[in-house]
Amino acid sequence: MIFTIEVPTRERFQIVDITDEVQRKVREGKMKHGIALVFTKHTTTGLMINEPEEGLLQDFKSKMKELIPEGKGYLHDRIDSNAHSHLRAGLFLNSELVIPVDGGKLLLGTWQRILFVELDGPRHREVLVMLCPCQELPEG
């Protein structure tokens, strides 16, 4: 079962918490046990699991900008001036995440959230959520 989450972004470089939307898709799919595969369909976006504390999110953005600055003569910039976005996505982020589900709930840690990272916005983006059910094993 595959669901789509729409992620409209408003900024060039933006981090969006999509955890609640993914959990809604798990409920909508009525999956009790299995894995949720979360996948971004775009080469200038990425996914990560981390704490969504505002200072930490700003630290992520600052460090990415420091390590891969915009406009440094990248060859890809001859095509569409967004090489830095592709490089940041490829070096720092995932295009997919796999999250276990038990009892119909995402098994994330206390501070863990699913974060979508826009690197070349603003744009209208889509994230796929594929639910892969597993049979619950009997205890013992």
From TrEMBL:
- What sections of the protein cross the membrane? none
Q: Which domain of life is it from?
A: Archaea
Residue stretches in coiled coil: none
Q: Which Gene3D superfamilies match?
A: YjbQ-like
Short name of any one Pfam family annotated for the protein: YjbQ
What the record says about family reads: Belongs to the UPF0047 family.
Recorded protein name is: Secondary thiamine-phosphate synthase enzyme YjbQ
Q: Record the organism.
A: Thermococcus waiotapuensis
